[in-house]
Prior knowledge:
The chain is of the alpha/beta class. It has helices at about 20-25, 70-75, 110-120, 140-145, 165-175, 190-205, 235-240, 250-255, 260-280, and strands at about 1-10, 15-20, 35, 45-55, 60-65, 80, 85-90, 100-105, 125-135, 150-155, 165, 185, 205-210, 225-230, 230-235, 240-245.
Amino acid sequence: MFKIVRKEVLNPSVKLMEIEAPYVARKAQPGQFIIFRINEEGERVPLTIADYDRDRGTVTIIFQEVGKTTKMLGSLNEGDEILDFVGPLGVPSHLEGYRKAAVIGGGLGTAIAYPQAKKLHELGAEVDSIIGFRNRELVILEKEMKAVSDNLYITTDDGSYGQKGFVTEVLKDLLDQGKQYDLVIAIGPLVMMKAVSELTKKYGIKTIVSMNPIMIDGTGMCGGCRVTVDGKIRFACVDGPDFDGHLVDFDEAIRRQSMYRKEERQALEEYECRLRGVQNA
């Protein structure tokens, strides 16, 4: 069992949890992920490692309550325990040797972009971070991102905070002003990562994206997390989750992402119905 030692509400739908998992914390690196299961009947859900503390033996995860399992996880509190917390899984990000990098996070993707920016900063790279959200209420990790960035740019779709518009607009402005990067990291919704990759391809800038497709076992056996990269099948759990953004077939990934929307919605509705029944009992 794995104990929740800290819980923090970052915005109305996003929560941070620090989990006591010393063996995972000992080996964790930026770019890797864990798979958790709340109980014996629960599904296996992957979450990127947002941070880790080797001395405390803890791993930080940040998640959005969008489905049955993430809502169940969000209902737990400090001192509660979850059954499984497996990791670290995936290939660590290769960040050594870069001098100037732009790290871009879209929405919840900011939680995944943070450890990348932090590691680059620790390695001595100059880091420009661009994070985008729908509105001010959804902004997360502003203080943390600012601490590991030479420059931090925030955008909101509605202009309620930072610059109005999209992260790609800020990136294009910086490039047009003469900014030069030897690496761009883009993490967030597939459509955002696709747009960033299409932009940087025109400038010839190496671009890494983090793919988070449907995943079950996390060991490469089930094949559920397959993505097409440079015309070849790759598995996000063992070959990624980082891939060359200029080679990813984003259109295919977007289609696959919606395959189980009906089943996901049904599971959530059944969970909420049972929850209401318990509360009304």
